[in-house]
Fold this protein.
Amino acid sequence: MLPFTLPQSLRRPFSRPWQRALALMVLSALGTQLLPACKKQEAAAASQPSEPPVHVDTVPVTAVKTPKVLLLTGTLRGAKEADLAANVAGRVLSTSVEAGQNVTEGMVLATVDVRAAALALAEARVMVDASRTQQEISQVECERYEKLKQSGAVTPAEYDQVTAKCKTAPLSVQAAEARQSIVAKNVGDGVIRSPFSGTVTERYVEVGEYVQPASRVVSLAKVDDLRLSFSLPEKNWPDVRQDAEVAFRVVAYPTQVFTGRVVHISGAVRQTRDVLIEAAVSNTDRKLLPGMFAAIQLTIGYEDLPAVPKTAVFLQNGKQNVLIVNGSTLEQRVIQPADAVADRIPVRRGVALGEKVVSVYSDKLRNGQSVN
Protein backbone atom coordinates (compact mmCIF):
# COMPACT_ATOMS: atom_id res chain seq x y z
CA MET A 1 0.00 0.00 0.00
CA LEU A 2 1.31 3.50 -0.93
CA PRO A 3 1.96 5.95 1.88
CA PHE A 4 -0.54 8.76 1.63
CA THR A 5 -1.54 11.75 3.78
CA LEU A 6 -4.83 13.53 3.26
CA PRO A 7 -4.61 17.25 2.75
CA GLN A 8 -6.02 19.57 5.43
CA SER A 9 -9.06 20.45 3.30
CA LEU A 10 -10.07 16.77 3.07
CA ARG A 11 -9.58 15.75 6.68
CA ARG A 12 -12.88 17.17 7.95
CA PRO A 13 -15.16 15.03 5.67
CA PHE A 14 -13.14 11.92 6.75
CA SER A 15 -13.10 12.69 10.48
CA ARG A 16 -14.24 9.24 11.52
CA PRO A 17 -11.79 6.27 11.50
CA TRP A 18 -13.82 4.06 9.21
CA GLN A 19 -14.16 6.91 6.65
CA ARG A 20 -10.41 7.45 6.55
CA ALA A 21 -9.77 3.73 6.13
CA LEU A 22 -12.22 3.57 3.21
CA ALA A 23 -10.56 6.56 1.43
CA LEU A 24 -7.10 5.03 1.80
CA MET A 25 -8.32 1.75 0.32
CA VAL A 26 -9.71 3.55 -2.75
CA LEU A 27 -6.49 5.54 -3.34
CA SER A 28 -4.40 2.42 -2.93
CA ALA A 29 -6.43 0.61 -5.59
CA LEU A 30 -6.04 3.51 -8.05
CA GLY A 31 -2.27 3.63 -7.52
CA THR A 32 -1.99 -0.08 -8.12
CA GLN A 33 -3.70 0.31 -11.53
CA LEU A 34 -1.77 3.44 -12.68
CA LEU A 35 1.79 2.32 -11.84
CA PRO A 36 1.96 -0.54 -14.39
CA ALA A 37 0.66 1.78 -17.17
CA CYS A 38 3.38 4.38 -16.48
CA LYS A 39 6.08 1.72 -16.41
CA LYS A 40 4.86 0.35 -19.75
CA GLN A 41 5.09 3.80 -21.37
CA GLU A 42 8.62 4.33 -20.06
CA ALA A 43 9.67 0.92 -21.32
CA ALA A 44 8.18 1.59 -24.77
CA ALA A 45 10.01 4.92 -25.04
CA ALA A 46 13.30 3.32 -24.00
CA SER A 47 12.88 0.51 -26.51
CA GLN A 48 12.49 2.90 -29.52
CA PRO A 49 15.73 3.23 -31.51
CA SER A 50 17.44 6.74 -31.48
CA GLU A 51 17.66 8.76 -34.77
CA PRO A 52 20.82 7.80 -36.65
CA PRO A 53 23.36 10.55 -37.40
CA VAL A 54 23.20 12.08 -40.88
CA HIS A 55 26.06 12.59 -43.29
CA VAL A 56 26.95 16.21 -44.24
CA ASP A 57 29.70 17.73 -46.34
CA THR A 58 31.59 20.55 -44.67
CA VAL A 59 34.16 23.15 -45.65
CA PRO A 60 36.35 25.19 -43.32
CA VAL A 61 35.67 28.89 -42.82
CA THR A 62 38.51 30.74 -44.57
CA ALA A 63 39.40 34.41 -44.95
CA VAL A 64 38.62 36.46 -48.06
CA LYS A 65 39.71 40.00 -48.96
CA THR A 66 36.61 42.16 -48.60
CA PRO A 67 36.11 45.83 -49.53
CA LYS A 68 35.64 48.23 -46.62
CA VAL A 69 32.55 50.20 -47.55
CA LEU A 70 31.05 53.43 -46.22
CA LEU A 71 27.25 53.73 -46.50
CA LEU A 72 26.37 57.32 -47.39
CA THR A 73 23.56 59.26 -49.03
CA GLY A 74 23.70 61.84 -51.80
CA THR A 75 21.79 63.72 -54.49
CA LEU A 76 22.14 63.68 -58.26
CA ARG A 77 22.24 66.91 -60.23
CA GLY A 78 23.02 67.90 -63.79
CA ALA A 79 26.63 68.34 -64.85
CA LYS A 80 25.45 71.79 -65.99
CA GLU A 81 22.46 73.54 -64.44
CA ALA A 82 21.16 77.05 -65.07
CA ASP A 83 18.19 79.23 -64.16
CA LEU A 84 17.73 81.54 -67.13
CA ALA A 85 16.56 85.08 -66.32
CA ALA A 86 14.73 87.48 -68.63
CA ASN A 87 17.47 90.18 -68.44
CA VAL A 88 14.90 92.64 -69.73
CA ALA A 89 11.60 94.09 -68.54
CA GLY A 90 8.51 93.42 -70.62
CA ARG A 91 5.56 91.17 -71.30
CA VAL A 92 6.11 87.56 -72.39
CA LEU A 93 5.06 87.18 -76.01
CA SER A 94 5.69 83.44 -76.50
CA THR A 95 7.12 80.30 -74.90
CA SER A 96 8.33 77.44 -77.07
CA VAL A 97 9.29 74.76 -74.52
CA GLU A 98 7.70 72.65 -71.79
CA ALA A 99 9.16 70.94 -68.72
CA GLY A 100 10.95 67.75 -69.70
CA GLN A 101 11.62 68.85 -73.26
CA ASN A 102 15.11 68.40 -74.71
CA VAL A 103 16.68 71.53 -76.21
CA THR A 104 19.81 72.27 -78.21
CA GLU A 105 22.30 75.07 -77.76
CA GLY A 106 20.97 78.34 -79.22
CA MET A 107 17.35 77.20 -79.38
CA VAL A 108 14.73 79.93 -78.68
CA LEU A 109 12.99 79.25 -75.37
CA ALA A 110 10.83 82.37 -74.98
CA THR A 111 10.41 85.92 -76.33
CA VAL A 112 9.68 89.13 -74.43
CA ASP A 113 8.06 92.29 -75.78
CA VAL A 114 10.94 94.77 -76.28
CA ARG A 115 9.24 97.32 -78.55
CA ALA A 116 10.14 100.11 -76.14
CA ALA A 117 13.76 99.03 -76.26
CA ALA A 118 13.59 98.91 -80.06
CA LEU A 119 12.41 102.54 -80.14
CA ALA A 120 15.21 103.47 -77.76
CA LEU A 121 17.63 101.70 -80.12
CA ALA A 122 16.40 103.76 -83.08
CA GLU A 123 16.91 106.92 -81.02
CA ALA A 124 20.41 105.81 -80.03
CA ARG A 125 21.35 105.22 -83.66
CA VAL A 126 20.25 108.76 -84.55
CA MET A 127 22.35 110.11 -81.69
CA VAL A 128 25.37 108.22 -83.00
CA ASP A 129 24.91 109.68 -86.48
CA ALA A 130 24.48 113.16 -85.03
CA SER A 131 27.62 112.82 -82.94
CA ARG A 132 29.67 111.69 -85.90
CA THR A 133 28.37 114.60 -88.03
CA GLN A 134 29.22 117.03 -85.27
CA GLN A 135 32.70 115.52 -85.06
CA GLU A 136 33.22 116.08 -88.81
CA ILE A 137 32.05 119.70 -88.55
CA SER A 138 34.32 120.30 -85.58
CA GLN A 139 37.26 118.81 -87.44
CA VAL A 140 36.73 121.13 -90.46
CA GLU A 141 36.40 124.11 -88.11
CA CYS A 142 39.61 123.20 -86.31
CA GLU A 143 41.51 122.93 -89.59
CA ARG A 144 40.25 126.39 -90.65
CA TYR A 145 41.22 127.96 -87.32
CA GLU A 146 44.62 126.36 -87.57
CA LYS A 147 45.28 128.36 -90.78
CA LEU A 148 43.83 131.52 -89.24
CA LYS A 149 46.12 131.14 -86.22
CA GLN A 150 49.17 130.88 -88.46
CA SER A 151 48.18 134.09 -90.27
CA GLY A 152 47.41 135.87 -86.96
CA ALA A 153 43.76 136.47 -87.84
CA VAL A 154 42.41 134.97 -84.55
CA THR A 155 43.40 135.41 -80.97
CA PRO A 156 44.78 132.47 -78.94
CA ALA A 157 41.60 132.41 -76.84
CA GLU A 158 39.40 132.03 -79.90
CA TYR A 159 41.65 129.29 -81.22
CA ASP A 160 41.59 127.35 -77.94
CA GLN A 161 37.78 127.58 -77.75
CA VAL A 162 37.32 126.06 -81.21
CA THR A 163 39.97 123.34 -80.86
CA ALA A 164 38.42 122.20 -77.54
CA LYS A 165 35.36 121.13 -79.48
CA CYS A 166 37.57 119.02 -81.73
CA LYS A 167 38.90 117.19 -78.67
CA THR A 168 35.47 116.50 -77.11
CA ALA A 169 33.69 115.52 -80.34
CA PRO A 170 35.24 111.98 -80.47
CA LEU A 171 34.25 111.45 -76.85
CA SER A 172 30.64 112.33 -77.69
CA VAL A 173 30.70 109.79 -80.50
CA GLN A 174 32.02 107.06 -78.16
CA ALA A 175 29.31 107.82 -75.58
CA ALA A 176 26.59 107.62 -78.23
CA GLU A 177 27.94 104.33 -79.54
CA ALA A 178 28.06 102.87 -76.01
CA ARG A 179 24.47 103.91 -75.43
CA GLN A 180 23.50 102.29 -78.73
CA SER A 181 25.21 99.02 -77.70
CA ILE A 182 23.36 98.94 -74.38
CA VAL A 183 19.96 99.45 -76.00
CA ALA A 184 20.79 96.90 -78.71
CA LYS A 185 21.60 94.37 -76.01
CA ASN A 186 18.21 95.00 -74.39
CA VAL A 187 16.55 94.31 -77.72
CA GLY A 188 18.56 91.11 -78.15
CA ASP A 189 17.68 89.99 -74.61
CA GLY A 190 14.06 89.88 -75.64
CA VAL A 191 14.83 86.53 -77.31
CA ILE A 192 15.84 84.00 -74.63
CA ARG A 193 17.99 81.17 -76.01
CA SER A 194 19.42 77.99 -74.52
CA PRO A 195 23.10 78.42 -73.52
CA PHE A 196 23.76 74.66 -73.83
CA SER A 197 22.07 71.44 -74.89
CA GLY A 198 20.05 69.85 -72.13
CA THR A 199 16.59 69.30 -70.70
CA VAL A 200 14.08 71.85 -69.45
CA THR A 201 13.50 70.96 -65.79
CA GLU A 202 10.94 73.71 -65.15
CA ARG A 203 9.27 76.66 -66.88
CA TYR A 204 8.24 79.58 -64.69
CA VAL A 205 6.40 82.01 -67.03
CA GLU A 206 3.32 82.04 -69.22
CA VAL A 207 2.37 84.14 -72.22
CA GLY A 208 1.13 87.59 -71.14
CA GLU A 209 3.04 87.60 -67.86
CA TYR A 210 5.14 90.71 -67.15
CA VAL A 211 8.73 89.96 -66.20
CA GLN A 212 11.59 91.96 -64.73
CA PRO A 213 15.28 91.53 -65.69
CA ALA A 214 15.82 89.21 -62.68
CA SER A 215 12.68 87.09 -63.27
CA ARG A 216 13.34 83.39 -63.86
CA VAL A 217 12.04 82.07 -67.17
CA VAL A 218 13.20 78.43 -67.41
CA SER A 219 15.60 76.05 -65.67
CA LEU A 220 17.91 73.84 -67.72
CA ALA A 221 20.03 70.83 -66.82
CA LYS A 222 22.47 68.73 -68.79
CA VAL A 223 21.36 65.15 -68.03
CA ASP A 224 23.65 63.10 -70.29
CA ASP A 225 26.28 63.64 -67.60
CA LEU A 226 25.37 63.99 -63.93
CA ARG A 227 27.12 64.92 -60.71
CA LEU A 228 26.57 62.93 -57.51
CA SER A 229 27.05 65.21 -54.49
CA PHE A 230 27.45 63.72 -51.02
CA SER A 231 28.97 64.49 -47.63
CA LEU A 232 31.93 62.51 -46.29
CA PRO A 233 32.58 62.38 -42.51
CA GLU A 234 35.66 64.30 -41.49
CA LYS A 235 37.40 61.22 -40.07
CA ASN A 236 37.17 59.42 -43.45
CA TRP A 237 38.59 62.26 -45.54
CA PRO A 238 42.08 60.63 -45.80
CA ASP A 239 40.49 57.44 -47.21
CA VAL A 240 39.10 59.06 -50.39
CA ARG A 241 41.22 59.75 -53.46
CA GLN A 242 40.63 61.35 -56.85
CA ASP A 243 39.05 58.94 -59.39
CA ALA A 244 37.88 56.58 -56.61
CA GLU A 245 34.91 54.47 -57.72
CA VAL A 246 31.51 55.19 -56.17
CA ALA A 247 28.62 52.69 -56.35
CA PHE A 248 25.04 53.75 -55.64
CA ARG A 249 21.40 52.77 -56.00
CA VAL A 250 18.23 54.80 -56.51
CA VAL A 251 14.68 53.88 -55.52
CA ALA A 252 13.52 53.91 -59.15
CA TYR A 253 15.84 50.95 -59.91
CA PRO A 254 16.33 49.17 -56.57
CA THR A 255 18.17 46.16 -58.02
CA GLN A 256 20.52 48.03 -60.35
CA VAL A 257 23.89 49.37 -59.21
CA PHE A 258 25.17 52.57 -60.86
CA THR A 259 28.76 53.77 -60.68
CA GLY A 260 30.68 57.03 -60.84
CA ARG A 261 34.15 58.47 -60.28
CA VAL A 262 35.21 61.06 -57.72
CA VAL A 263 36.14 64.28 -59.55
CA HIS A 264 36.02 66.96 -56.84
CA ILE A 265 36.99 66.86 -53.17
CA SER A 266 36.33 69.97 -51.12
CA GLY A 267 39.40 71.62 -49.64
CA ALA A 268 37.72 72.53 -46.35
CA VAL A 269 35.66 70.88 -43.62
CA ARG A 270 32.22 72.44 -43.25
CA GLN A 271 30.56 73.43 -39.97
CA THR A 272 28.67 70.13 -40.08
CA ARG A 273 32.08 68.36 -39.69
CA ASP A 274 32.03 66.79 -43.13
CA VAL A 275 33.62 67.26 -46.54
CA LEU A 276 31.67 67.77 -49.76
CA ILE A 277 32.48 65.22 -52.51
CA GLU A 278 31.34 65.17 -56.14
CA ALA A 279 31.42 62.17 -58.46
CA ALA A 280 30.88 62.23 -62.23
CA VAL A 281 28.19 59.83 -63.47
CA SER A 282 27.57 58.93 -67.12
CA ASN A 283 23.86 58.94 -67.98
CA THR A 284 23.73 58.42 -71.73
CA ASP A 285 20.69 56.14 -71.42
CA ARG A 286 18.97 58.85 -69.32
CA LYS A 287 17.69 56.44 -66.70
CA LEU A 288 18.69 58.85 -63.95
CA LEU A 289 17.23 62.29 -63.32
CA PRO A 290 18.62 65.35 -61.53
CA GLY A 291 17.31 65.53 -57.98
CA MET A 292 17.20 61.75 -57.40
CA PHE A 293 18.20 60.50 -53.95
CA ALA A 294 21.09 58.00 -53.98
CA ALA A 295 22.16 55.34 -51.46
CA ILE A 296 25.95 55.26 -51.83
CA GLN A 297 28.53 52.54 -51.16
CA LEU A 298 32.00 54.10 -51.12
CA THR A 299 34.96 51.70 -51.02
CA ILE A 300 37.73 53.07 -48.78
CA GLY A 301 40.00 49.98 -48.48
CA TYR A 302 40.02 46.22 -47.91
CA GLU A 303 39.96 43.86 -44.93
CA ASP A 304 40.17 40.08 -44.39
CA LEU A 305 36.90 38.54 -43.16
CA PRO A 306 35.76 34.93 -42.54
CA ALA A 307 33.76 33.69 -45.51
CA VAL A 308 31.33 30.84 -46.20
CA PRO A 309 29.96 29.47 -49.51
CA LYS A 310 26.80 31.04 -50.87
CA THR A 311 25.18 27.57 -50.85
CA ALA A 312 25.68 27.33 -47.09
CA VAL A 313 23.55 30.38 -46.26
CA PHE A 314 19.78 30.14 -45.78
CA LEU A 315 17.10 32.58 -44.71
CA GLN A 316 15.06 32.01 -41.56
CA ASN A 317 12.91 34.52 -39.68
CA GLY A 318 14.21 37.28 -41.92
CA LYS A 319 17.86 36.64 -41.02
CA GLN A 320 20.76 34.88 -42.71
CA ASN A 321 21.82 31.57 -41.08
CA VAL A 322 24.40 28.81 -41.50
CA LEU A 323 24.88 25.37 -39.92
CA ILE A 324 28.18 24.73 -38.11
CA VAL A 325 29.39 21.26 -37.13
CA ASN A 326 30.16 21.48 -33.41
CA GLY A 327 31.59 18.14 -32.30
CA SER A 328 29.05 15.58 -33.53
CA THR A 329 26.01 17.86 -33.77
CA LEU A 330 24.79 20.69 -35.95
CA GLU A 331 24.66 24.20 -34.52
CA GLN A 332 22.61 26.89 -36.26
CA ARG A 333 24.16 30.36 -36.30
CA VAL A 334 22.74 33.75 -37.29
CA ILE A 335 25.34 35.66 -39.29
CA GLN A 336 25.92 39.28 -40.29
CA PRO A 337 26.96 39.04 -43.96
CA ALA A 338 28.82 41.53 -46.11
CA ASP A 339 28.55 41.87 -49.90
CA ALA A 340 29.39 38.65 -51.72
CA VAL A 341 32.87 38.19 -53.17
CA ALA A 342 32.70 35.75 -56.12
CA ASP A 343 30.93 32.60 -54.79
CA ARG A 344 31.62 33.30 -51.11
CA ILE A 345 29.89 35.50 -48.56
CA PRO A 346 32.10 37.37 -46.07
CA VAL A 347 30.74 37.30 -42.52
CA ARG A 348 31.29 40.15 -40.05
CA ARG A 349 29.73 38.32 -37.10
CA GLY A 350 28.56 34.74 -36.51
CA VAL A 351 31.42 32.43 -37.52
CA ALA A 352 35.16 32.19 -36.90
CA LEU A 353 38.09 31.11 -39.01
CA GLY A 354 38.66 27.33 -39.01
CA GLU A 355 35.12 26.35 -38.04
CA LYS A 356 33.43 23.74 -40.24
CA VAL A 357 30.29 24.88 -42.01
CA VAL A 358 27.83 22.69 -43.93
CA SER A 359 28.72 23.45 -47.52
CA VAL A 360 25.22 22.94 -48.99
CA TYR A 361 22.14 23.66 -46.87
CA SER A 362 19.19 21.27 -46.94
CA ASP A 363 15.81 21.77 -45.29
CA LYS A 364 16.17 18.23 -43.87
CA LEU A 365 18.92 19.47 -41.56
CA ARG A 366 18.14 21.13 -38.24
CA ASN A 367 19.79 22.56 -35.18
CA GLY A 368 21.07 19.92 -32.72
CA GLN A 369 20.94 17.06 -35.21
CA SER A 370 23.63 14.37 -34.91
CA VAL A 371 26.08 14.09 -37.79
CA ASN A 372 28.93 11.81 -38.78
Summary: The radius of gyration is 47 Å. The mean pLDDT is 83. The CA atoms of residues 67 and 340 lie 10 Å apart. Residues 115-151 form the longest helix (37 residues).
